[in-house]
């Protein structure tokens, strides 16, 4: 690489790195807020730490509580508790040692026996401990509808009669307005005002608290007001305009406590320490209301500017290093790539690296159980896999669009060539329409090539009326054509081709294979065989093509989808001598095939043979020029079966040759060949893994619908990677088909719909391929009759069922969530996007059921004369 080009690359990388660093800085702009005051009125205090949960009977020790109380003395002299159960009843005694006053909480629920125990012990503690300055009987018990107003009044009167300190109950502010009669039975109004739960944006929340306080004072002028809970969570779902994150918590609390102090309000900040156990009761957000985290570290700076992510400099550096590592791999062997392509790959590498670092950071802020850690590891692996697939997709796009020239172009040989070895053309058949096969044989008879033979191998067709007309036609075409009917014959298509090898003329140096529906051009052998003059070339391949794309809209969409592989993927693979050999329009050197033979254990014997050719250090030649056209599947089920076979065979090959592909030992595979074989099948693996994402999304959505107040939408990190990959792949198809294949936007959209429709089928094939060794070989039928709508719907019943489930989940969430916030709407959007492949499958099935024009009598296909 020239010094000038290296300099341009360096400038480009620095510019992109500066852009992403600037984005980190912009997102983390400092925001001003009043410093935390020297003293606040009080903290709500729950002493539970990680792995401690009162619902499971795990409580902190007295020493742990002492340490917590000592930490709080630097900010307040007043705390509020919620229960006197077990060691919690010792908090007033321990607080006395630290010089803290206590507002004692007595927990009430629908367990009347437990209520009696709480009240008795609460009264006892309040009488004994001098630092108990007031007692709160029940916490939102009326709001939870666990006791009645009459029961609450009875409890309040009973406790007030037993104690000399003020007594009240704590409820959300609107409960006091709903039950104003409570005021006659309390010594003060203890109200919770939490704007987050009421969908109030942080910017308006301080004013919201003050307005509620004024309303309560006006409604109960003779009773002192205690704001028994004020606070903001640092993590969790967004509720309307209320965003739960550390910066919002810091800005709100620092402004709020200063305002309340200035106005002389008595209040408790909820809460001192994060309580991870509360996530089970209040949703994920319940764990994150503390000013200190569960490790007893401040969650935000108490003075100075507030930033969204305080460690953003470190994260930006980490994403930069990760991006450079990815870029170094992407730009290996990129000398022919234009500067635009390098810039594009640099942008993608930094985007992917930034997403991975952000995902890792966001997950690190969560409190995790063993289940959460397990999910996190799986999520990390899944996110990494998705990003690798995204990088490989970007690499293919760049090499397709922005390469100066093809490295290994193999153009048809149009001038006369003295190299004319004998070619043996093999045509495997099974239960094929005789008139279609005759058409194929007629095209072969017109080949403009001096020395060739044609072997037709009909394996396992039971009905003589199908294979005997083909046999007779071969006899009529002359001695070049030989027909074999073999039954039984094992080994799928590979077994039939190996049988043909045994009957091939000893003079043949090249073996060509075409499917029984392919009509070849007369110049096929004449213009492609000369490539074998290079002794290093073992395989010569030209693309599959089709002649019935105008027969129906269904086939037009299929045709658009097929073109991408042969005019995008195969072209870029050919530059690194890594094409996928496919079993029609392919030629193989006889000596190589005699040694390697077709694999009878694999249902994609063609691709498997091509890989073994590369393992021997031999090469392949690929020409984009079409020399033959076949017939596409007539129905959606046959379209799916064909793709299932391809994807399942790919998994068979991956498992069988995994060590060779990953390590490259014991063979002559180049790094480029190993890369393309693995990267080429990664998107199919991603489709397989996406099944688990869909299943998990449905389960999570069901929980959101059933218990909307306890189950939050999944974190963005669960949904963002697969969504990003889907959007990128869709955009890539639309862009590449227009730029590289040369089709209009309508045909590009057709290719996208047809490709999406196969996602579920590919996913099933991948999963079956990973857990099974073999399945029966199924052919792709041609010239099948039309079928009705009900049959078409049955062909896509699995996809339709999943689509309905996803749509139902999206609708159910929308209806069950009160004032859905951005996170809810984002998750609904994810569900709808996730349904698109299933909708595409249903559309393709219905299109395949539309009436087709009556076919003309089989004669010579157009364009093949």
UniProtKB/TrEMBL annotation:
Gene Ontology, cellular component aspect: plasma membrane
EC number: 2.4.1.336
First-tier enzyme category under EC: transferase
Compartmental location: Membrane
Reaction catalysis annotation: a 1,2-diacyl-sn-glycerol + UDP-alpha-D-glucose = a 1,2-diacyl-3-O-(beta-D-glucopyranosyl)-sn-glycerol + UDP + H(+)
Keywords: Glycosyltransferase, Magnesium, Membrane, Transferase, Transmembrane, Transmembrane helix
Membrane topology label: Multi-pass membrane protein
TM regions (residue ranges): 7-27, 312-332, 344-361, 367-391, 681-703, 715-737, 749-771, 800-817, 824-847
Primary localization: membrane
Matches recorded under InterPro entries: GH, Glycosyltr_2/OpgH_subfam, Nucleotide-diphossugar_trans
Gene3D superfamilies recorded: Glycosidases, Spore Coat Polysaccharide Biosynthesis Protein SpsA, Chain A
GO molecular function: hexosyltransferase activity
Top-level taxon in the UniProt lineage: Bacteria
Protein name as catalogued: Beta-monoglucosyldiacylglycerol synthase
Organism for this UniProt entry: Stutzerimonas marianensis
């Amino acid at each position: 690489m020239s010094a000038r080009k290296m300099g341009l690359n360096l400038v480009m990388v620095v510019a992109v790195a500066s852009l992403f660093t600037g984005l980190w800085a912009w997102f983390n702009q400092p925001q001003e807020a009043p410093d935390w005051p020297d003293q606040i009125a009080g903290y709500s205090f729950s002493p539970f730490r990680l792995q401690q949960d009162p619902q499971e009977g795990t409580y902190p020790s007295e020493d742990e509580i002492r340490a917590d109380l000592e930490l709080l003395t630097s900010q307040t002299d007043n705390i509020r508790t919620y229960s006197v159960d077990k060691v919690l009843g010792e908090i007033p005694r321990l607080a006395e040692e630290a010089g803290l006053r206590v507002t004692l909480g007595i927990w009430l629920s629908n367990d009347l026996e437990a209520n009696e125990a709480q009240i008795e012990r609460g009264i006892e503690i309040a009488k004994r401990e001098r630092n108990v300055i007031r007692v709160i009987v029940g916490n939102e018990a009326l709001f939870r509808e666990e006791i009645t107003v009459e029961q609450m009044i009875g409890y309040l009167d009973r406790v007030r009669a037993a104690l000399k300190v003020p007594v009240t109950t704590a409820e959300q502010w609107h409960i006091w307005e709903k039950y104003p009669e409570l005021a006659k039975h309390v010594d003060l109004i203890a109200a919770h005002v939490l704007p987050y739960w009421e969908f109030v944006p942080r910017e308006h929340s301080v004013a919201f608290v003050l307005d509620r306080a004024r309303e309560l004072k006006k409604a109960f002028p003779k009773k002192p007001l205690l704001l028994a809970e004020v606070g903001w969570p640092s993590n969790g779902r967004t509720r309307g305009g209320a965003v739960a994150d550390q910066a919002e918590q810091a800005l709100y609390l620092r402004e709020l406590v200063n305002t309340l102090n200035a106005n002389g309000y008595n209040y408790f900040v909820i809460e001192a320490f994060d309580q991870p156990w509360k996530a089970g009761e209040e949703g994920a957000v319940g764990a994150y209301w503390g000013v200190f985290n569960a490790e007893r570290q401040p969650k935000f700076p108490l003075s100075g500017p507030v930033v969204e992510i305080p460690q953003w400099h470190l994260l930006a550096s980490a994403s930069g290093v990760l991006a450079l590592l990815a870029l170094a791999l992407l730009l290996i062997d990129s000398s022919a790539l234009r500067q635009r392509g390098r810039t594009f790959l640099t942008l993608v590498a930094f985007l992917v690296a930034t997403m991975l670092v952000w995902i890792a950071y966001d997950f690190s802020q969560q409190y995790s159980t063993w289940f959460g850690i397990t999910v996190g590891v799986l999520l990390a692996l899944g996110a990494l896999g998705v990003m690798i697939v995204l990088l490989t997709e970007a690499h293919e796009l760049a090499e397709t669009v922005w390469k100066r020239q093809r490295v290994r172009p193999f153009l048809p040989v149009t001038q006369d060539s003295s190299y004319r070895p004998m070619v043996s053309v093999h045509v495997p058949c099974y239960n094929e329409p005789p008139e279609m096969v005759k058409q194929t044989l007629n095209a072969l008879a017109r080949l403009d090539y001096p020395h060739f033979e044609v072997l037709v191998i009909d394996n396992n067709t039971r009905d003589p009326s199908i294979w005997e007309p083909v046999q007779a036609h071969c006899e009529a075409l002359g001695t070049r054509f030989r027909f074999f009917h073999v039954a039984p014959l094992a080994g799928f298509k590979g077994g039939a081709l190996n049988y043909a090898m045994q009957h091939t003329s000893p003079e043949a140096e090249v073996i060509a294979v075409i499917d029984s529906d392919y009509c070849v051009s007369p110049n096929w052998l004449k213009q492609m065989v000369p490539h074998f003059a290079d002794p290093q070339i073992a395989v010569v391949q030209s693309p599959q093509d089709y002649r019935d794309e105008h027969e129906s809209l269904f086939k037009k969409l299929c045709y658009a989808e097929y073109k991408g592989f042969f005019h995008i993927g195969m072209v870029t693979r050919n530059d690194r001598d890594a094409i996928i050999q496919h079993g029609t329009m392919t030629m193989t050197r006889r000596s190589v095939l005699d040694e390697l033979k077709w694999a009878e254990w694999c249902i994609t014997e063609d691709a498997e043979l091509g890989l073994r050719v590369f393992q021997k250090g031999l090469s392949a030649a690929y020409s984009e020029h079409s020399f033959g056209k076949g017939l596409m599947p007539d129905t959606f089920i046959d379209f799916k079966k064909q793709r299932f076979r391809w994807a399942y065979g790919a998994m068979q090959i991956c498992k069988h040759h995994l060590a060779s592909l990953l390590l490259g030992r014991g063979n002559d595979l180049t790094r480029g060949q190993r890369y393309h074989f693995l990267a080429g099948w990664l998107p199919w693996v991603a489709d397989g893994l996406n099944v688990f994402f869909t299943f998990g999304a449905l389960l999570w959505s069901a929980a959101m619908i059933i218990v909307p107040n306890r189950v939050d939408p999944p974190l963005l990190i669960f949904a963002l990677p697969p969504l990003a990959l889907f959007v990128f792949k869709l955009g890539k198809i639309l862009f590449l088909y227009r730029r590289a294949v040369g089709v209009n936007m309508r045909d590009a959209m057709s290719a996208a719909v047809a490709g999406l429709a196969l996602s579920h089928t590919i996913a099933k094939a991948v999963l079956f391929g990973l857990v099974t060794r073999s399945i029966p070989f199924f052919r792709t039928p041609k010239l099948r009759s039309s079928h009705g709508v009900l049959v078409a719907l049955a062909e896509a019943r699995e996809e339709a069922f999943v689509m309905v489930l996803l749509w139902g989940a999206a609708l159910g969430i929308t209806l069950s969530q009160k004032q859905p916030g951005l996170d809810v709407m984002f998750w609904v959007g994810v569900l709808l996007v996730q349904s698109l492949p299933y909708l595409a499958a249903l559309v393709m099935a219905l299109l395949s059921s539309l009436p087709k024009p009556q076919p003309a009598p089989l004669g010579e296909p157009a364009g093949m004369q």
